[in-house]
Specification:
This protein is α+β, with helices and mostly antiparallel strands and 147 residues long. It is built from four helices and five strands.
Amino acid sequence: MAERVRRLAPRDRDAWEALFRAYIDFYRANVPDSVIELTWQRLNGSAGEMTGLVAVDGDDRPVGFALLVLHRSTWSPTWYCYLEDLFVEPAARGRGVGRALIEAAYSEADARGATRTYWVTEAGNMAARALYDDVAELAPFVQYRRR
């Protein structure tokens, strides 16, 4: 694997946005441009509750990302890390990029004192779930959302 993982940087704006839009398309969703801009600002802000990691190729071009949200818990005195978004461009899949991003997310969570790192995916996303089954345990919870 030629890719390495590093923090998202301002120079990554165009590549990150292209990957983020591909991620949105993968989930057949619609996110307004204003929210994409706000997400970018939050990832690059000083509050530190959102962090972006990118996997880059040998030319330092982002080929995938992990977007983390750190938050407090009502069940713990520590922080939790929600891996809200994880995406690898199709041409880079199958080379360990997703695993490297998850491991980097774990390292970031550890560095911030988070005692839980968790994420969700669609039940039918079998390619991703094969990786997730290898690097984490499936939680026994079902997610509900307000109508």
